[in-house]
# Entry
Amino acid sequence: QVQLVETGGGLVQAGGSLRLSCATSERTRTTYAMGWFRQAPGGEREFVASVSLYSGVTYYGDSVKGRFTISRNNAKNTVYLQMNSLKPEDTAIYYCVTDPRGSAIISKLNFTSRGQGTQVTVSS
# Structure
């Protein structure tokens, strides 16, 4: 299993911004694509965004389109999630995931490795 380390969560007021980072020591086929999903207390998993590390193809969940941007730095084996115009309903634990089959697979909430998660809380 690939080790993923998320950072950047925290508390922010509605309308504010946060940037999450996810670093991995792996740069092999096992990390062909990386992404994020989130889960609020008592809620279901929700796909947020994914990116293929080599082609750059991205996918976004409908609720975050236009507000969140996923990007990658292949030299640092790191993926970022820039979150702008945050809303209270964005409050959740955000998990970084990876899968060798591509960003489209992650968009279906399929993945082979997952990080421990980082809490994002948006106050109204």
Observations:
- The mean pLDDT is 93.
- Helices lie at 103-107.
- The two ends are 38 Å apart (CA to CA).
